[in-house]
Amino acid sequence: MDFTSEFIEHGYSELGSIIPQASCAKILNTVHDTRKFDSSLFFDEAEFERLNPDAFNKNPRPGSNVLEHFPEELNVVERNTQLVDLLTKLLGPHYNIFRKKLVCGMPESKLPKWILDRISGMPSNNLAHFVKPEFTDITYFYGIDFHQDIVDWKDRRSDFLTVYVYLDEVGETDAPLFVVPNSQLLGANCFPHDLEPLNTNNSLWRYRSDDGKSLEVCHHVMTGGAGHVACWHPLMLHGTGPDLSDHPRLSLRYLIERDPDGGPYGIDIANDLISGPLETPEPRKDLDRRGLAVVLKNHLYELSRTAH
C-alpha cells in the first residue's frame, strides 16, 4: 500500500527516517544552545504560588517561537521531495503550513518534584503554566492521553493534517507516540475519549463515540530514528506517555491545511469514509476557565507505568 492510500484508508502514514540525521542534529544543536532542559525552565514553587499563572497564551506563537530562528534548517524538512509529494496528493498543490512548533517530551528525571506531584495522571500535561515566560517558545509535555488534533479547533472542519518529525532516536522509554489507525472513522469527539482496554497489554481498545457508535481499534507505538516522519488525520487518536529517559524528546510538529481550491484531494476522500461529524462545538471538557485540568484520568500514563 502506498502512503497516500494508507492515509486515506487508515488516517495515518509513516514515512520512516526520510530526513537526514545530520540535518536533525543541526536543529538539535541549535535548540540546545538556547537553554538547558532541566528544572531551570520552570518557576520555583514559591514563585508559582505567588504568580498563580493560568495556562493560556503560553505556547509558541508569532514572535515567541524558537523555530523562527532557523528557517533554513527547516527547509530540509519542508522541501523534502517525498513529503512534498505526499502532502500534494493529500492536500493539493497549494497546501499551507499554518502552525509549526518544537515539541519537547520533558524527561521525568528533570522535572521538579512539586510539579510532578501536581500533574501525575492528568489527561493532558502541557507544562506551559509552570514554564518561565522566556522559555515558552517551545511546547513542553509530560505525556498526553489519546486525543484528536481537532481538540484545539472548535467548530473547524477537518481540512488539515499533522506532520510529526522525530529529531533524535525515539525508543520505548523516550515518550514515543501511540497512534490509533482507523480511529478517525468515528468522527470528531470530545476529549477525554471513551476507551476501554480489551486485552491484557491494552493494545486493543473499544472506542466509543459521543453519539454511541463503537469500534475496536489497536494502537501502534511509533518508535524510530532521527528524521522519522509520520502524518495523520486530525481525527485520528494519538498520544504519548511520560518521558522515562534521562533526556528530552524533541520533535517538530506541523499543522498543514488543504488547498482551498480544486480537489478532491486525499483528505477529502478520507473524510468521505468517516461516519461521524468532521467538526465539533465542544472539542474538550478536561480544562477549567483558566486552562487548568479538572479531569484526573490518563490511559497512556497508566499504560506506560505498567509497561516500565
Question: Quick summary of this structure?
Answer:
With 308 residues, this protein is an alpha+beta fold. The chain is built from 8 helices and 13 strands.
Describe this structure in words.
With 308 residues, this protein is α+β, with helices and mostly antiparallel strands. The protein has a single domain, classed as q2cbj1_9rhob like domain (Jelly Rolls, Sandwich), CATH 2.60.120. The chain has helices spanning 3-10, 21-32, 45-51, 71-78, 81-91, 113-119, 266-272, 299-307; strands at residues 12-17, 96-105, 124-126, 139-147, 160-166, 177-180, 194-197, 204-208, 214-218, 220-222, 228-232, 237-240, 249-257. Helix 1 (3-10) packs parallel to helix 7. The radius of gyration is 19 Å and the shape is globular. The two termini are 34 Å apart. The model has no long low-confidence stretch (mean pLDDT 91).
